[in-house]
Amino acid sequence: MKKILFALLVSMFAFSAFASTKIVIVGSTTVLPIAQQWAQTYMQLNPNVNVSVVGNGSGNGIKALLDGLADIADSSRWMSDTEIKSAISKGFFPFPIVVAYDAIAPIVNANNPVRNLSLDQLQQIYDGKITNWSQVGGFDMPIVVVTRDNSSGTFEVWAEKVMRGALVKPGALTVASNAEVIRSVAGNKRAIGYVGLGYLESSSDISEVAISGMKANIEAARSGTYPLARPLFMITNGVPSGTIAQFIDFGLSPVGQKIVSEVGFVPIYEVK
After folding, report:
1. What residue spans define the domains of the chain?
2. For the chain, how big is the Rg over CA atoms in Å?
3. How far apart are the C-alpha atoms of 63 and 117, rounded to whole Å?
4. How sure is the predictor about 78, in pLDDT bands with cuts at 50, 70 and 90?
5. Which pLDDT band, with edges at 50, 70 and 90, does 223 fall under?
6. Are 111 and 188 in contact (CB under 8 A)?
7. CATH label, 102-223, candidates 3.30.2090.10, 1.10.1610.10, 3.40.50.2000, 3.40.190.10
8. 241 C-beta neighbours (distance < 10 Å), count
9. How would you write the chain as a 3-class SS string?
10. Which residue has the higher pLDDT, 218 or 228?
């Protein structure tokens, strides 16, 4: 009997030693391409670790972290006061880590000749004061406004830096991801939207719109001189440790930061 128990204990120890460790990442669709590529490469280097990544918006990622359903929340914005208070009430200590930089770029359909708008014009298009492309140098056709839902960190930054207290006009097309913004604008010559820097090359049917003559680029995003530059975060509960810390350390390493550049975003430091 003792031999049987000993054998069972040995087998259980062996199973636990080789069992897969799981990391769950939930949140921003902007950070999603970075997290997915980090996860894929990290799992190739560490076959005993399973990293799952879901992109459903920064707010949903932070909620999942605070509900104990995620190990890492991807966010394209800083946490709100309400989220911080909720974290404290649950005994959580949110620890934000800047993993990359981004720039939100306005986009139009490739057949639309408008290639430059000011922040004031963008605000007036989105709040409904400007309703026709002819008012900003384009064709005589109504403007279709495409925006993100309020769980999106990209929307939060747009609301802060472009809308500046104004509300997006009723009837705007609200979508749940950067990819859906691309599809909506690519499929409608009247549409305007906004996406993270890493999505600009995802379709030949869209064109970037400069903001007062400045286009989104690496230098302006990292320095913060571009009007819609922002950091991208991964948030953990407390200072990360163990496998989670190892995963984030990988992402911040030259290999991980090269991946950031390869998927179209801005590394936190220059990589070759």
Report:
1. 21-100+231-262, 102-223
2. 22
3. 35
4. very high
5. confident
6. no
7. 3.40.190.10
8. 9
9. CHHHHHHHHHHHHHHHHHCCEEEEEEECCCCHHHHHHHHHHHHHHCCCEEEEEEECCHHHHHHHHHCCCCCEEEECCCCCHHHHHHHHHCCCCEEEEEEEEEEEEEEEECCCCCCEECHHHHHHHHHCCCCEHHHHCCCCCECEEEEECCCCHHHHHHHHHHHCCCCCCCCCEEECCHHHHHHHHHCCCCEEEEEEHHHHHHCCCEEECEECCECCCHHHHHHCCCCCEEEEEEEEECCCCHHHHHHHHHHHCHHHHHHHHHCCCECCCCCC
10. 228
Asked if residue 9 has pLDDT above 80, the reply is: no
222 contacts 26 by C-beta, under 8 angstroms = no
Specify the fold of 21-100+231-262: D-Maltodextrin-Binding Protein; domain 2 (3.40.190)
